């Protein structure tokens, strides 16, 4: 194969091409490692991660996200850098990557480096280049900041292991949620080849945990865990399939994060879907909501969706949706219910549930207290009681609650869903401010439905 | 009612707590205030509190010993905020904590409006400090010093400096809080100190190094090329990175126009 990388190119041109090519990678997190300065070099890591800037699309810029090269031997249909595309190609040298990273890091522009790459010559050859870069950065330049590196499926396992000792996070892209989708759009990749390095990293991390238990200063292997990402909306999978895949990855591969990336059509290709409404951002948002429910709220994929209802509700978030289908479990008494039950109430998050559990040891908790603790009462009030009372006289009825929940507009991230943030001032109580009007609301709703018919 | 008027700083508030307690007027008859601009109340006696580092240290030690590390941290962070109610809320929290059987539980007592306010302010200050950990932009000067100017809403510089002291241990750096006229100075390999920015001679600092302009340009172009045009969403960006931070950030520097004005 002929390498099409031009010989002479300024650093600026290379950075432009190779950061532009890397922007479709989602992960830009710098969390998961707590590491102090080594005393010799520069840099440390903060457990919570730090966002250093936000780009015009509202995504955080935490790491210097670049490809080592956008030259690629594969021809995946969804990818901007596929071999058949006629785009400018560039490649960094390891030294250039190190200089850039150090220069940016010293000025506090970035938290670390995110290094991915197109496949140059062969997976192992590319992986070795990445290894050389990271080795130079860690040992020659004494860089102690965060490094996220892509493991390339099909590369020599020894290389992946060596890279794992230099990086904080390793990720292998799952690309598409199912093996069939992968076969269709990325024929040169296979599911097995993607899962092999993932399993390898998982097993090595497990061993490393034991080593660290024995010997505290043993070298750490991938301390921030591994992650993956998949493209949403390029293939016809439903939400249930995607969430089930994510759940399996969390359980069987002990992943730290699964990222979802709304498909952006960058290539003209007959096998890719046309998306006239832009990337499926609302769907991506719902998947992230469900992802949080899986990881922090103790939900299972089969509770959120099923074969009969394979897609998320467009109007309600997954937690409200679940609660409305399980009204027999509500209302929940705030002063008695255990932590796991509290977590399942819409409007109560991890932080507020923890605060409730701590505060109620010292005395009863009432509605105004809940508000101060960060509970979103306009959602929670239909599902909770404090000292045996609901906030207003409400009815635990699916239709009634659904109508009221839809009335308080869900705060979607800007740009997702419609943009109307104002409404006509009305002399009538159409926002249900006053209590004691359960029946009235139902009548209103019915009248409205009649009018629409 | 007696109002103790203290200086608008952590030490000032802590001295106020000491004096208010020491006055033996009874907790329900005293109030703490920091805001000098506030309207004076009728039927109140005002007492000026002289900030005293020894008294402040005593209060801080008691808080640490009896209310625990978490309350200590919360009080320090809350004092960095600008909320006018914070001095009184901190006082009430300390009083409550010292009357509880187990003072360490006071941070969990969120039913109490004062504790709740202090914990809320703690999060606000922490959030501001955490944002600045990312948004500080250093400029390399000719002599290798890293210089950064910030304009934080709260007095977060002392909360910020330890982070950078660890991160850039082998560097000489200065972070200058322009709004409050103070700066954190870190000489290479030594401890950082808080200093009055009045003593800083800006001519001594020197000009930006020759590499500086190149890195600025590289960074600006990186920030542009990393955004996905199809997902463009300036309102989301502004929600996460409000305009007030952008004045001191390299990537939002305006290109000078023909008249040479920025």
In words, what does this structure look like?
The complex is a heterodimer of chains A (about 450) and B (about 260). Chain A is of the alpha/beta class and about 450 residues long. Chain A has 2 domains: about 210 residues, no CATH class; about 140 residues, no CATH class. In chain A, about 40% of the residues lie in helices and about 10% in strands. In chain A, the strands form 3 sheets. In chain A, strands 3-4-5-6-7-8 form a 6-stranded parallel β-sheet. In chain A, strand 5, helix 4 and strand 6 form a beta-alpha-beta unit. In chain A, helix 2 crosses helix 3, helix 3 packs parallel to helix 4 and helix 4 packs across helix 6. Chain A is globular, with a radius of gyration of 25 Å. About 5% of the residues of chain A have low confidence. Chain B is α/β, with parallel strands linked by helices and about 260 residues long. Chain B folds into 2 domains: about 130 residues, no CATH class; about 120 residues, no CATH class. In chain B, the strands form 2 sheets. Chain B has a 5-stranded mixed β-sheet, covered by helices on one side. A 3-stranded parallel β-sheet of chain B has the order 2-1-3. The mean pLDDT of chain B is about 90. At the A-B interface, helix 1, strand 1, strand 2, helix 2 and helix 12 of A face helix 4, strand 4, helix 5, helix 7 and helix 8 of B.
Structural class of chain B: alpha/beta
| Number of helices, counting only DSSP H or I runs of 4 residues or more of chain B | 9
Beta-strand content estimate of chain B: 5-15%
Low-confidence stretches of chain B: none
Largest interface: A-B, 62 and 56 residues
Number of strands of chain B: 8
Estimate the helix proportion of chain A, in percent: 25-40%
Number of individual domains of chain B? 2
Strand order of the largest sheet of chain B: 4-5-6-7-8
Domain count of chain A: the total is 2
Helix content of chain B: 40-55%
How large is the share of residues in beta strands of chain A?
5-15%
- Give the integer mean of the pLDDT values of chain B: 90
Succession of helices and strands of chain A: HEEEHEHEHEHHEHEHHHEHHHHEHH
